[in-house]
Amino acid sequence: MFLKDFIFSIICMLLLVICVLV
Known about the structure:
Blueprint: H1 2-21
């Protein structure tokens, strides 16, 4: 469960970075 939350956090952060770059 911890790993799933960690991966979800990374995905959200990547999406945020992509939105900022775009």
